[in-house]
Each structure stands twice: as structure tokens, then as C-alpha cells.
Amino acid sequence: MTSPSTFVATKNMAMVFLLSSCLLLAASAGNFYQDFDITWGDGRAKILNNGQRLTLSLDKTSGSGFKSKKQYLFGKIDMQLKLVPGNSAGTVTAYYLSSLGSAHDEIDFEFLGNLSGDPYILHTNVFTQGKGNREQQFYLWFDPTKDFHTYSILWNPQAIIFSVEGTPIREFKNLESKGIPFPKKQPMLIYSSLWNADDWATRGGLVKTDWSQAPFTASYRNFNARACVWSTGSSSCSSNNSSGYSWLTESLDATGQEKIKWVQKNYMIYNYCTDIKRFPQGFPPECSLS
Ligand SMILES: *[C@@H]1O[C@H](CO)[C@@H](O)[C@H](O)[C@H]1NC(C)=O
Ligand SMILES: *[C@@H]1O[C@H](CO)[C@@H](O)[C@H](O)[C@H]1NC(C)=O
Ligand SMILES: *[C@@H]1O[C@H](CO)[C@@H](O)[C@H](O)[C@H]1NC(C)=O
């Protein structure tokens, strides 16, 4: 017998079930087979554990890389990385979003390796319509080689926010109203690669890759994208949340602003916006506006 209240409960259960299956579909947390293609490295990039894990490796002959199957136009994209341990000097692990073609847009994380015990540098950059030169570099407040840590890019029409372990480290605001281009028309793919850059990566190229330590390996897991997926000229957006697309309108609140200040004060080691030697004629306009 079904009393009115059980009926309501059952109906709610059905709703919950329906919603949670939608959420699963929308957020479908990380399967590397499903979301990525290995693009180069002749077997040095591997998808493991039924698609739950991906590794890139580098030896004297070659590095390796992968890219997303989908193109995204805005998103909140998380990936966990565990970087090359030990003596990683000379190696660079790049993890970035980039559009195709000329005058491209790009949002970069690059991890510059170092001698055992010496700190990695997290190098960031933003390209709009082919123009970059917006480097900011950071040390991390943990050893990025001991465990997996989450590196996130929030890209929505208001801003690009780089975060590490949920802590925002950099914001590139949409200042189109002030004449500064902002990426919002060109869909981007997610890319990553591990390669040798010992001509510049570690202490400006002073420390070379020690090939006796090869192969060098970086690992990836828990890819998660709430994003608008671009396909044949239109985009469809996902949320993991029945109340919608909060990431699309998310911006830094007061706490976020405080966190960025904390990171920039304690961990930022290079900021193009304060490099007077490089910009003797004056800093790029966004420097005084953001
Ligand atoms: C859903 O979004 C929240 C808030 O952004 C995030 O913390 C959580 O990990 C997400 N869950 C999934 C399954 O994507
Ligand atoms: C490597 O360690 C040296 C010495 O601590 C430091 O100056 C440098 O910033 C570190 N990182 C890189 C990538 O060179
Ligand atoms: C879903 O999003 C709303 C609006 O941003 C937020 O208030 C709520 O906490 C979120 N719920 C979950 C389960 O993430």
C-alpha cells in the first residue's frame, strides 16, 4: 500500500536518482582513455589502471605528451600531478590549455625541475591572440614530487584563475573594456608534455639534465572538468551541481583575494609586472589595472 507520504518519498528518491546520474554524466571524473589522446613519445606516455592514471616519461631520445580529445570554451579544470622526483634538473613538465591556429590563446602551467632537494619553479603565462610575455613564477609550499597535488584552471568570461591545492595563485581578469584582449572566442584543448629544456629550465640553464637518472616520469590522475565543450560551432556546458553552473560566474571573493596576496607575498619569485629592465618604456597595461 502506498500512502501519500511514501509516494512523495519515492518520487523524491527518483528525482535524486535522476539528478545523481546527470551529475555523474556531467562531471564524469577522469578516465584518461575517454578524455585524452597520447600524441607523441613513442610509448613513453602510458595510460594505466583502467584509465585512472597516466604517466609521461622522458629519456635521452625523447619526451612524451598527450592532449584532450575535446575542445573547451570556458571551464573549471582540475588535474592532479605528481612531478618528476629526485634530480629533475633540466626537465620541464608543461600542463596547459591552448587554442589551435595563429593568434592563439593559451593558459600555462610549467613545472621547472631542479636538483634533489632544491625547489621546483611553477611558471605561469597567459597568451591572448598570440601575445604572451605575461610570466609569473612561484615556489610551492610543499614538495610536488612526494604526492599528487591538484592544479586548477578556472576560465570563465570574467577571469582566468590559476589555483594550486584550491589556493588561488594568480588571476588574469577580463579587462576587454580597457582594451586588453581576453580569451573568450577560441576553444582550447588541454595539453601536457614532459621534455628536456636544460638550456634554460634550471637556474637559467646552468644545471643540465643528468641522463644517468633517466627515465624521468611524471604522473597524472583525477582529471575533472566542469566545462563547456565545443563541438562543430556550438558549446554545451556541464555542472556537477543541480543548482547549475556556478563556476561560470565564480570570481575571487575576499578570502580568495587574501590567499592570492599571501601566495604572491611569500612564494612569487618573478612577476613581469615588476620587471623594470624588461619594460623600460612602461609595463603592459593590465599591470596597472589588475
Ligand atoms: C563538484 O564541485 C565542487 C565545488 O566546485 C568540487 O569541490 C567537487 O569536487 C565537484 N565534484 C565532482 C564529482 O566533480
Ligand atoms: C633550483 O634551486 C636553486 C637553488 O635553490 C634556485 O635558485 C632555483 O630557483 C630553483 N629552481 C629552478 C627551476 O631553477
Ligand atoms: C551547488 O551550487 C550552489 C550555487 O553555487 C551552491 O550554493 C551549493 O552549495 C552547491 N551544492 C553542492 C552540492 O555543491
UniProtKB/TrEMBL annotation:
Glycans are attached at residue 114. Gene3D superfamilies: 2.60.120.200. Keywords: Apoplast, Cell wall, Cell wall biogenesis/degradation, Disulfide bond, Glycoprotein, Glycosidase, Hydrolase, Secreted, Signal, Transferase. Its EC number is 2.4.1.207. It is found in: Secreted, Cell wall; Secreted, Extracellular space, Apoplast. GO terms for cellular component: apoplast; plant-type cell wall. The keyword Secreted applies. The keyword Repressor does not apply. This is Xyloglucan endotransglucosylase/hydrolase. One of its GO terms (molecular function) is hydrolase activity, hydrolyzing O-glycosyl compounds. One of its GO terms (biological process) is plant-type secondary cell wall biogenesis. Residues 26-220 form the GH16 domain. Residues 1-29 form the signal peptide. Pfam families: Glyco_hydro_16, XET_C. InterPro entries: Beta-glucanase-like, Beta-glucanase/XTH, Beta_glucanase, ConA-like_dom_sf, GH16_AS, XET_C, XTH. Contains at least one intrachain disulfide bond essential for its enzymatic activity. The active site is at 106 (nucleophile), 110 (proton donor). Catalyzes xyloglucan endohydrolysis (XEH) and/or endotransglycosylation (XET). Cleaves and religates xyloglucan polymers, an essential constituent of the primary cell wall, and thereby participates in cell wall construction of growing tissues. Belongs to the glycosyl hydrolase 16 family. It comes from Juglans regia (English walnut).
